[in-house]
Amino acid sequence: MPSPLAITPDQPPVVRLFHASLVWPLQLEPLLVNGIKGRHWEAFERDAQPHPWCRIDDEFTDDPSNFRERHYREFVSFLPYVQRFLYGEGRSSQADAQTPTGNSPMHVFRRKDIIALRLTLRPGQTPVMLHIVHTDLYFFDDLDLIQLNLEVRATELPLDTVRDILFRFGRAYPSGWDEDGDGLHNVHLAEWLGSDGSVVARSDTERREKYLGFVCQHRSPCISEHWASLLRPLVLAHANEPGALRVRLIEYHRMPVMAYLALDEPRSLSEEDWVRVGLASQLHPDEPLPVNDPSVRDFAQSYCQDRFWTNTPSGPNTRFICTGSSLTVVGDAAKPFFTEPERGVLAQFRHQYFLIFLIAHLHRAALLVFSDVLVGAVNALNIRDDQSVRQFKRRIRANFETFLRFTHRYWFHELSERPHVQATFRLCSNHLRNDALYEELREEIGEMSHYLDSDSQRRQSNTVVRLTVITILGLIATVTTGYFGMNIIPFGEGSLMERVLHGFLASLAFVSLVMFAVSRSKRLSDFLEAMSDERLTFAGKWRAFWRVLVG
Hints:
- The chain is α+β, with helices and mostly antiparallel strands and 551 residues long.
- It has helices at 40-45, 69-76, 80-87, 159-168, 208-218, 225-231, 271-278, 294-297, 299-303, 336-339, 345-350, 352-379, 386-409, 419-432, 434-484, 496-519, 521-532, 538-550; strands at 14-28, 32-33, 36-37, 54-56, 106-110, 114-120, 128-140, 145-158, 189-194, 199-202, 235-236, 246-249, 257-263, 304-305, 319-322, 326-332.
């Protein structure tokens, strides 16, 4: 694979147009409505407390004049079964008016009250203003997870500033604190700005005691206040604030990120520049490049898609870099092929490539949630408590059913027939180890299901043994009464009261005998097995019978 030509620029590179999209998966706590599992998005939509999130329809409006070409290009990029997942299925012209349409299992909510993000990357630096393009929440039927999408844009930013943004911005909480009490690896200050320019919420990573106390008390990390305010009315599962819908973190605090960088001359970037741009969310901007790290040493081969990289003056010089947790697209700001918002790479980045990135992380998040449910079920199991055992079985079977629906509704290997779209999806999925996670989870669920089936068969076998013992005892009584005849005792004689009393006592005796046989059925089964053993002496058989009587 050819490497970009290293040209030393006269001035530091400037990113003429910068787009970034965070895709943050979060686990939802199960929601029960009248004892039945409810849909989170329905409860979110009808929440009694007012909140800024509003459900949005997709771009498929009744008026074709409002349908843009970039939306059409997005739609036809995917295979039909993926189209039905993303957009649902409309009613055909021959269908009856009462025929329901096939709605998409994906439900999107958007808030529009926050229009900008002001970032102070480091203490004393001039804040960077990012315009917010979209702030969306994605809910999915049958899955206890959501995905937060935050898309921002800016213009005329130094490349070093962009790399610093990608490294520091998408972090839910600080990884530690420096000597001055500032959070490590996160932005110094993040502020959401409303339409009137006022600060809606700001980060609080400097509150060291808040994060230490939360982890100490709940054994779970606490997220920064600006992210918590963005998610409300969703609240952390362990947070001391009201909220019907509660979320948990699924993975590391660094959020998956997509980045679009339009440069004047991408061919001028050095090999080190490419590595630092592609791995911007992982490599600290101030630290030396770890040249012996496999991700750096095999960077081009492992992470780069160079289908549109020609390394010539005429271009196209567009490079896709995918590490799984990040997808970075770098190209020439002077080429309409790259910057055109309806037909160019920018439109594809914001539509097709965003969706394949979202689906790849949906797969990983869903598999991790399924695994977490299995672990929770096993941890809560107490084999000495019948109620715990029954609850364990219900949780495992429900998880198995949901996993089957996930497999048939959401699990895709082929998304598109367009080579570069499909190749980028496979590259992202491979780095996320989605296929390996799926196989591991399927084996775990299969083992759980096999255990439940084996346990059910064992219980049925024990029941059959007990019934067999009762049948043998009943056979003895049946043969005996059949030999002497059914009318040994003249039951029809005597007064009515005598017959009623006789019938009651006889029924009580027979029921007691059957209950005694049931209670001792295991011992009786052992006695019958001993009687059938020709090698066992008479004394041994007598001891087996005595155990039936006295235990």
